[in-house]
Amino acid sequence: MSHSEDQFDPSEGSAWFAEFAGDLRAFLLGVLRNNDLASEALQATWVKAVEQGDLARTETRKGWLFRVALNEALVLKRRAKIQERSFRELAQEDSRRHESPGGSVTRNESPEGFVLQSETIEQVRLALNDLPIEQGYVVRMRIYENKTFAVIADELKVPLGTVLTRMRLAMQKLQQRLGHFEN
């Protein structure tokens, strides 16, 4: 396939991306305020540039690339918010159950609702216990101890990116195992 002058030539992609990589990284750091997330967004931007760079005209490539980078950063931010909210809700449900003396049924809860909730909590616990040890540590420290990923990385003496990857993998495994609870 021949490329017109206005189309992106994948063989020139490295040079094109390298021209803007420094500016893109600075931009992504400003948006995400996290070096590891900025690196992840930069990599995703590079993939999109290789796959879809031919959609950008020569005179608009820089703007197109920054728009792609912003979209990738926003995807990461949304994913992080969803994970954070899910973990917080899970932790609140678990703490409410433990606050009830002897695990008794509360005034506003039917016996059927209590049984269903207990079964759900048990399935979540089993799913958490089935995670690889390293992933389980990260999930528990984040949910039950409400620690930031940076603190978790420091305490486990591993890079922040490793902690984020462990959390992402754990979330994927939990979603596969507990996906039927989303209804």
Give the tags.
single chain; 183 residues; mainly alpha; Rna Polymerase Sigma Factor, Chain: A; Arc Repressor Mutant, subunit A; 2 domains; 7 helices; 73% helix; elongated; disordered N terminus
Structure overview:
The chain has 183 residues and is mainly α. It has 2 domains: 10-77, Rna Polymerase Sigma Factor, Chain: A; 100-182, Arc Repressor Mutant, subunit A. It is built from 7 helices and no strands. Helix 1 (13-32) runs antiparallel to helix 2, helix 5 (133-143) crosses helix 7 and helix 6 packs across helix 7.
In short:
With 183 residues, the chain is mostly helical. 73% of the residues lie in helices and 0% in strands. It starts with 12 loop residues before the first helix and ends in a 5-residue tail after the last helix.
Say how many strands there are. 0
What CATH architecture of the largest domain do you see?
Orthogonal Bundle
Number of domains: 2
Structural class label = mainly alpha
CATH topology of the largest domain: Arc Repressor Mutant, subunit A
* Element-level helix/strand string: HHHHHHH
Number of helices: 7
Instruction: Let me know the largest β-sheet.
Output: none
The whole-angstrom Rg is 22 Å
Instruction: Determine and state the CATH class of the largest domain.
Output: Mainly Alpha
* Unreliable residue runs: 1-6, 103-107
Using the alpha-carbon principal axes, give the shape: elongated
- CATH homology superfamily name of the largest domain: Winged helix-like DNA-binding domain superfamily/Winged helix DNA-binding domain
Residues in helix, %: over 70%
Which percent range describes the beta-strand content?
under 5%
Distance between the termini: 46 Å
The chain-level mean pLDDT equals 78
